[in-house]
């Protein structure tokens, strides 16, 4: 059995969480110096590779369309969006995915099985949720980046930059 790769890996994964905390305090996208950059993430839009294929798992149709547009606007290519665990697992098995953004709560399902599959494939991913994740993530995934809903284009771009670095929970 392969170990879960969702182990806390230190500071790189906390950068996105820092970005979300800053954004929620009314200073979206500004680092400590107030320079319009997310804390520790450099210039926005510089590090999202063209043709980066990002699997989107989101069960809310409107949110899924919005997220796909934000991913496209950031220069990446959305895969999906898909609304079910089965469809996400099929997309992951088909290959050609560079990263993923997974809504945790999918009605009767959750995205943890997809996260485990992505871990086995060494594909970086992040969770997206409108809920507090303090007690929500399994201990093995506690270090995964989390995109807090509602999110901005800047936050999505920063997340894609982080994922493009190949940074994932074991990365």
Shape: globular
- List the total number of helices: 5
List low-pLDDT spans. 1-45
Distance between the termini: 19 Å
The H/E string reads HEHEHEEEHEEH
Task: State the helical fraction.
Answer: 25-40%
What's the mean pLDDT score? 76
Beta fraction:
15-25%
How does this model look, in words?
The protein is of the alpha/beta class and 171 residues long. It has five helices and seven strands. Helix 2 links the parallel strand 1 and strand 2.
Write the layout of secondary structure elements.
Elements: H1 11-24, E1 53-57, H2 61-73, E2 77-82, H3 85-94, E3 99-103, E4 105-106, E5 109-110, H4 112-120, E6 125-129, E7 146-148, H5 153-164
Parallel strand pairs: 1-2, 1-3, 3-6, 6-7
Antiparallel strand pairs: 4-5
Helix pairs in contact: 1-5, 2-5, 3-4
How would you summarize this macromolecular structure in one to three sentences?
The chain is α/β, with parallel strands linked by helices and 171 residues long.
Give the key terms.
single chain, 5-stranded parallel sheet, two-stranded antiparallel sheet, alpha/beta, 5 helices, 16% strand, 171 residues
